[in-house]
Sequence to fold (448 residues):
Amino acid sequence: MKNKEIQELRIKDYFIQATKDILKSEGIKAISVRNISDKAGYSYATLYNYFKDVNDLIFLCVSDFQAECLTFVKKQTKGIPNGREKIKALALSYINYFLEYPGIFELFYISRVGDFNNKQSIISLIDKSLDSVCESDWNYCVSHNQIEMENLEFFKSQLKLSTVGLLLFYLNRLTPPSYSEFISHANKQTDDLLGLIFGKQGAVEDNGSKNPQVQNSFISINIK
Amino acid sequence: MKNKEIQELRIKDYFIQATKDILKSEGIKAISVRNISDKAGYSYATLYNYFKDVNDLIFLCVSDFQAECLTFVKKQTKGIPNGREKIKALALSYINYFLEYPGIFELFYISRVGDFNNKQSIISLIDKSLDSVCESDWNYCVSHNQIEMENLEFFKSQLKLSTVGLLLFYLNRLTPPSYSEFISHANKQTDDLLGLIFGKQGAVEDNGSKNPQVQNSFISINIK
DNA sequence: TAAAAATATTAACAATGTTAATTATATTTG
DNA sequence: CAAATATAATTAACATTGTTAATATTTTTA
Fold:
């Protein structure tokens, strides 16, 4: 009975891959049972032999995307020294990831996908998404006495709300109305927040070229 | 030709009222052309004689709700002295409004409703929604030298991102997973943020009863 | 190879937004 | 007031959606 399981997992994966492809390229609006099944090479009803419904399937993509996001961000911020600058770079790079794949932002934060009854682990993954990206650097800052341990949870939460909020307003409401305005706003907002958090100690001047790597990374990405 | 216009406006309003009713009671998921038209007392196709499409109609509700929200918040925070405490109360009451009407939060911040081509004024209204609620108190704080003018835009933006972010995670992802946890988190997060913004000057102790009016207002509202 | 089990597909349903064709109503004109 | 016209409202129809039930096909087992 081992072959059965392997084959079943393989077929499930065809559907998952198809779903991921559509989410990354066209977003949730393009997701449909027939569309997914077409790409997977099966008839539409076959999907129901492997998944409870389409929401089930969609949620299975989250952990893959989170892993991909982590890789993306680590690569883009490689070489930046630990601490405040690194955290800023990580947050901005995190934003970059979702600018490149707005459909994944929808999946993580926007889409109301069925009921969340037995999806608690996925919900939790999403909630900790940015934290897990920044974790080691927050710890670095605490152990180097740059921030106080007792404030850590508040700081993490605030950075999360700010980062996701920025994306929400831009991707969902086109505020600010242009890409360049958004980039500049996200930069300033994140920098100012970290300035507040780190109490100006170790602050860098606001001359717009303080973080060339991340600045560049922003420029190198174009969204439609 | 004046009667024509009056009558047309009246009928349009039947549809708008029906749409508002559904949004407030059942949320966007319950919105449909046939549902709206039923409630308005017309056949489904009649809607298209008065509105380009259903998105057009939905967007027309935004300004009404914003006005209602403002009234709600002002009433709930009446008597709280100007300044930091008032701003906290306003933000928490703003949260209260959307806890009571999750469908309106969806409309304001979540729903991707058609293209935003000629909807710029509504987008802008949404963007300034919380600012307009807090405007006079921010000004009060600046004129009383509690915060610096040059930081004002950053502070406003941060409070907006934090407040909307809190609602997004709770209403959309059930994080934190219970109402009471959310209330306590929203309270602490908002208070801590304002602590950071106001640089601890005029801070109140974190004993959980510092703001009885707003605390009460939270308790008095129950969401399903 | 034939019967049984597992898997995949087509047919069908109800609900959706939207348009075209048709009917009912109101308004203008003789 | 009656006939012609313009306006408004409704029904019919279509394409698309998620999902289930009824079939058809393939694979496994005896």
In short: Residues 4, 42-46, 49 of chain A lie near DNA strand C (CB under 10 Å from a C1'). Residues 87 and 174 of chain A are 25 Å apart (CA to CA). Chain A touches chain B at residues 29, 109-110, 112, 116, 120, 123-124, 126-127, 151, 154, 157-158, 160-162, 164-166, 168-169, 172-175, 177, 185, 188-189, 192-193, 196-197 (CB under 8 Å).
